[in-house]
Amino acid sequence: MFDLMMGISLTIAAIGAGLMAGVYFAFSGFIMRSLDQLGALRATEAMNAINEVILRSWFMVLFFGSTLLYAILSAIAFLDANLAGRWLLFATGLIYVFGMFLCTVMFNVPLNNRLAEVSKGDDTEVETWTLYSKHWTRWNHIRSVCSLATLALSMHYLVNYT
């Protein structure tokens, strides 16, 4: 029964990681470049609107839910010396929690907060957007790669250890 629950939990977590990877990939692949083409004022307005909507969307359930699942799975792997492939599962959880969740909390969210503080028509708006876009996208690349790596490692674990 424990193995079944672990397999179901990891499958749900992996789906979450895959969905997160897709969202982050879209931003890294084309959304941020599209916003850059709008100019600083319109890009800032659009990104601020996205950031407001995302906080009240299913994205947040996915964001926190998948993180919680990977944290729990990682803790189980760390504590259960008899769990097959435990270090792979432990590392998979850490990659997600640190590479996706903490990266978001420590870097992307503070950048979002700073962007939200920019006043319309502020003479530093162009510089603010340019720096925001560059740094936010760089951290987003990391979130994309970590989410995708988590998905791949989860699939590997599911195929080989459950």
Describe it.
There is one protein chain. It contains 5 helices and no strands. It is mainly α and 162 residues long. It has one domain. Helix 4 packs antiparallel against helix 5.
Question: Which short descriptors sum up this protein?
Answer:
162 residues, 0% strand, 5 helices, single chain
How would you summarize the topology of this molecule?
Blueprint: H1 2-38, H2 40-54, H3 58-79, H4 86-116, H5 125-161
Helix pairs in contact: 1-2, 1-3, 1-5, 2-5, 3-4, 4-5
How would you sum up this structure in a few lines?
This protein is mainly α. It has helices spanning 2-38, 40-54, 58-79, 86-116, 125-161.
Percent of residues in helical segments?
over 70%
> How many beta-strand runs?
0
Task: Give the CA-CA distance, first to last residue.
Answer: 12 Å
Shape: elongated
Low-confidence runs:
none
Radius of gyration: 18 Å
Going by helix content, strand content and strand pairing, the class is mainly alpha
**How much beta, percentage-wise?**
under 5%
Largest sheet: none
Query: Average pLDDT value?
Result: 95
Could you give the order of the helices and strands? HHHHH
Distinct helical segment count: 5
Domains, number = 1
